[in-house]
Each structure stands twice: as C-alpha cells, then as structure tokens.
Amino acid sequence: MRSFFKILIAIPLLLSACGGGDPEAQVVGAFFSAVQKGDRAAVDRVSLAAFDDKLESWEIVERGPESEAPFQLADLEAQLKTKRDEVEAQRTGNTSFISDNSDTYESYKSKYAEDPSAPFQGALLAFHEELQQRQGRLAQLRADADQLALDVEALTNAATLSLSTPVDASFEGQIKVKPLQVRINDGSGDKTYTIVLQRYELVDSGQNRTPTPRWIIAEIQSPS
After folding, report:
1. Spatial separation of the C-alpha atoms in residues 60 and 55, rounded to whole Å
2. For residue 127, what are the domain limits?
3. How many domains, the chain?
4. Cα 83 from Cα 90, distance rounded (Å)
5. pTM for this model (two decimals)
6. Contact 61/183 with Cβ under 8 angstroms?
7. Residue 220 lies in a domain
8. 131 sits in which H/E element
9. Which residues contact 161 (CB under 8 A, 6 or more apart)?
C-alpha cells in the first residue's frame, strides 16, 4: 500500500505535468490524462467525480465566475448529533408506547397474523393508527440522519482531498467554487461538459495551522 507521504509527493508531480502554471488547467489536465490511461488511483487524487465517456481530446472553452461558500462541517456534525438524539428519543418512545399498551399490542399482532388484510376497528384501529404514525416518524428521522451522515462524509472527503491532510470539525474557512465549460471530443464529435472545481481555504483552529489548498474536481455535469 502506498504511504500517505508518497501520495502527497505524487500529487504535485502529476499536476506540474499538466497545464503549466495554470492551476485550473493543471487539475483538469491531470484528471483527463489519468482517465485516458485508465489510472483510477490518479483520478481519485484529483477528483471526487468519475468520467466514463470516451475521450480523445479536451479544451477549456469558458471559465465561470468564482464564488465562495462557508465551510460548515462543524454545523453539519452538530445537526447530525441532534438528529441521532431525536432518533433515539423516538425509538424509546415507540418502545414505551408498545410496553404501556402491551395487551392491545398482543391482540393487534394476533389479529394481523390471522388476516393481514382485515380492517381494524375500535381500540385496535386507534392503536394501529398511532403505531403507524410513530413508526413513520422514526423512519423519517432515520432517513434524515442517514442523509446528514452522507453530507458529513462527502464534505470531509472533499476538504481532505483539497488540502491533502485529514480534516475534521476544527477546520474553519471558505470553499471556493469555479465552473468550467470543457469541450470534449469523444471521437465522433464535440460535447461540452460543465466541470465544477472546488478549493478549500481552511484554517485548522485546533492545531493553529493553515494547510495549502488546491483545486479539485467536485462534479462533472454531462451535456443536457
């Protein structure tokens, strides 16, 4: 397995061979060079996105305006913790609801086992509706927590790739974003893709250091 230090050495060597002193062209050039060679490891060193279409040549034809957004990993992690607490509270509440209505729950299970399509009535109907609502809330909370966990992972991975160093919630700063219009020839004609670059300009407040950021490819939008 390659060491982390070997990977860090390989990144500037790879970029220096593509695009001269133009950092945006460098990262795009390194990416497409790796794509043409089928070098997945080299692709992953500069991009979060894959490119599976045919490629013979490419050219940056337009550079969009640079924008920025706050780096909100700490906020996302706080939201995730809150949501997971809500999941646990709802799960505990559902368990208590069943325990407090154990006789009704046993009758409910028995009737459902006899005929799952039979309608509930009276107390069993009220119990069924309440249980369904509770289970629905729990399922939604779990889905929300899962999405937040994915968002945290994606943001962490993107920042780590841009800074070439592990990133956590102690990092603060801005995300620079720049779209490029890239004309790609696949052998049969030209197609224009939008390649979204990101650069994470962050300060590690925990270690009082400022890692050097670089552009990475965050997204590739196919022609509509």
Report:
1. 14
2. 74-152
3. 1
4. 10
5. 0.84
6. yes
7. no
8. helix 122-163
9. 45, 46, 48, 216
